[in-house]
Design a protein that fits this description.
Blueprint (H helix, E strand, L loop, with lengths): L1 H10 L12 E4 L4 E6 L9 E8 L13 H20 L14 E2 L6 E2 L5 E3 L3 E8 L3 E2 L2 E2 L1 H17 L7 H24 L1 E6 L6 E3 L2 E4 L13 E6 L3 E9 L2 E6 L5 H10 L3 E2 L8 E3 L4 E3 L7 E4 L17 E3 L4 H14 L4 E5 L5 H4 L3 H6 L14 H8 L2 E5 L12 E6 L2 E4 L1 H10 L16 E5 L14 E3 L4 E4 L2 E4 L9 H16 L8 H14 L20 H9 L6 E5 L1
Parallel strand pairs: 15-22, 15-23, 18-21, 21-22
Antiparallel strand pairs: 1-2, 2-3, 3-7, 4-7, 5-16, 6-7, 8-9, 10-14, 10-17, 11-12, 13-14, 19-20, 23-24, 25-29, 26-27, 27-28
Helix pairs in contact: 1-3, 2-4
């Protein structure tokens, strides 16, 4: 650090680009400072640094690393404390532009594997972005010395060195309990679990915090189960069995709120969120209609066939999908990449994809209607493919005839009404056209072609995340705002890094699309920087996405080219 101070003194008042001279590693009594990237301008993106704390300075319990879930929980705990310390920092740095800025990729309500904090057997690594101090467009060396020798050490003292092991232990206990619930769910073939007392409503449409004075969740007795958790806790809640589950009820009674909690249950939540013990089959995918999306070589024939002008639906492509074709493709793409639980809300579905009543069947001749509604295929999904469906419906009682479980929401309280629903169907039988096939259809595997990207060497072609729901491929955007289970812009940055990796590598040549996703998952589980250009340095502000959201983004590339193989 004395060398760093000396360098900063020497370049004080020089042109801002002279900061490049300080890149490298420096030793502080509490940590090692790695300056990996230096910004070229006081108004440019901040510089990237890593603070590496040795276990001799801050002890690391081996129990923290026993499982990947524990490791992630401990990293998340440190990240929350660091984020809070930065927000409470009162030591100011003077200067122009982004001088003195300290940015950190802090977590939200979900617990995600992030690059912001990395825990190893002997080290804790903290990744920060900092604005190097400037006076106009000249270096402000004195303020830079203050930043590195006072502000950053104080930040660590107020966070990493201050957090109590008891706080970390609580996070580990929660992680163990969440893991146990998922284990019990798998053993009992449950696709979701919602604990009694959970707070499901969120504070607002733009806040993921729990809503104050919300009605706590209480399971119907018929669906209630009890689980003995590790660390001496017993919990009760609603278990949803595999099969077809309907969530119904009047408007504003909590149907969509329950489904939204279930769809977010594929992620673990932090203590105090209200959904700590709302857990869902990790393969669950939210399905919706998506007018205008790109589709490339997807077999949508189980739902749509005999299109006008002989358009092939066994190998369907379009640059501008309709509501029904997009929803059909979303179902088939989710199944292709391994989802065995589909989550659907009729409010975001194409009506003609979901159902066609008897009156419409009589008006529109069968040979003139290319769509086989979802209601006619849903039992085949369950019985032939083992794919479960949780469906929110408030407008169509026809689905009572195919449901295994019907939950009625009344003022945010669920009630088990399966027998009542079946009785209604028996008293009011539904006239429906016959399903055209007794089988759902063949499984398919596609291949993503390297020609989806321009040839390497095109200097104008850059891949960059722009917020949470857009990635730029050169000048062409990939838009995926309807990918509802992509919850963090850091996940989007990771997907941009993955696309960059696919662009510059040859792994797509001899692998199917699903094989590529398998490979990506293995690499991300090793470390998030495995797929980045900054391996061994500050990897950027990244968080681990699921394979299903990675696939969703790749499927929406406007220049994406897939070829289809039936199995």
């Amino acid at each position: 650090m004395e060398q760093l101070k000396k360098k900063l003194t020497q370049i004080d008042r020089k042109g801002y680009k002279s900061y490049k001279q300080i890149q490298g590693m420096y030793t502080h009594p509490l940590f090692k400072l790695h300056i990996d990237y230096v910004q070229g301008d006081p108004f440019a993106s901040p510089s990237k640094i890593r603070l590496v704390i040795n276990h001799h300075k801050r002890s690391i319990d081996t129990a923290w690393l026993e499982t990947e879930e524990r490791r992630t929980a401990v990293e998340d705990t440190f990240a929350r404390v660091i984020d809070q310390a930065i927000s409470h920092n009162k030591m100011s740095i003077k200067g122009s532009g982004k001088s003195g800025l300290i940015a950190f990729d802090g977590p939200g309500q979900e617990i995600l594997k992030r690059s912001a904090v990395s825990l190893q057997e002997h080290t804790i690594t903290v990744c920060l972005s900092v604005g190097l101090p400037a006076q106009g467009r000249s270096i402000n060396g004195k303020e830079a010395i203050k930043l590195f020798s006072e502000v950053l050490p104080n930040l660590l003292k107020e966070s990493v060195f201050k957090v109590e092991n008891e706080q970390i232990e609580k996070a580990i206990i929660l992680a163990d309990q969440q893991s146990h619930i998922l284990k019990v769910m798998k053993e009992n073939k449950w696709v979701s679990f919602v604990a009694n007392g959970s707070i499901l409503p969120r504070k607002s449409g733009v806040s993921n915090l729990p809503q104050h004075q919300a009605v706590p969740f209480q399971s119907p007795k018929e669906n209630e189960v009890e689980i003995d958790l590790p660390h001496g806790k017993t919990i009760k809640g609603m278990a949803t069995q595999q099969g077809v589950t309907l969530i119904t009820g009047g408007g504003y009674h909590g149907k969509s709120t329950l489904l939204q909690a279930i769809e977010r249950g594929v992620y673990r939540h932090t203590a105090g969120d209200g959904r700590e013990f709302v857990l869902t089959n990790p393969t669950a995918v939210k399905i919706r209609a998506e007018d205008g999306r790109k589709i490339s070589s997807v077999d949508i024939s189980p739902f749509i066939s005999n299109l006008p002008h002989g358009k092939d639906t066994n190998n369907f492509s379009t640059d501008d999908a309709s509501g029904s074709t997009s929803q059909a493709a979303n179902v088939m793409e989710a199944i292709e990449v391994g989802s065995n639980t589909l989550l659907i809300d009729e409010d975001t579905s194409a009506t003609n994809f979901m159902i066609r009543d008897i009156r419409m069947q009589k008006l529109v001749a069968k040979n003139k209607e290319p769509i086989t509604p979802f209601i006619h295929r849903i039992r085949q999904l369950v019985d032939d493919l083992g794919v479960s469906v949780i469906l929110v419906t408030g407008g169509s009682g026809d689905y009572f005839s195919v449901a295994d479980n019907v939950i009625l929401m009344e003022e945010y309280i669920p009630r088990q009404v399966t027998n009542e629903a079946k009785k209604i169907i028996n008293e009011n039988p539904i006239e429906n056209e016959e399903v055209p096939s007794n089988e759902f259809g063949r499984s398919t595997r596609r291949k993503l072609l390297q020609s989806s990207f321009p040839k390497e060497g095109d200097r104008k072609f850059k891949i960059q995340a722009k917020g949470q729901y857009q990635i730029m491929l050169g000048k062409t955007p990939i838009l995926f705002s309807n990918t509802e289970q992509l919850i963090d812009s850091s996940q989007t940055r990771m997907i941009a890094e993955i696309i960059q990796y696919l662009y510059r590598s040859t792994i797509m040549e001899n692998r199917s699309f699903t094989d590529i996703l398998d490979f990506i998952e293995v690499e991300m589980n090793k470390d998030l920087d495995q797929l980045t250009l900054n391996k061994g340095k500050h990897p950027g502000d990244l968080a681990k996405p699921r394979r299903y959201e990675i696939a969703a983004v790749l499927n929406r590339m406007r220049n994406g080219k897939f070829v289809l193989n039936h199995i």
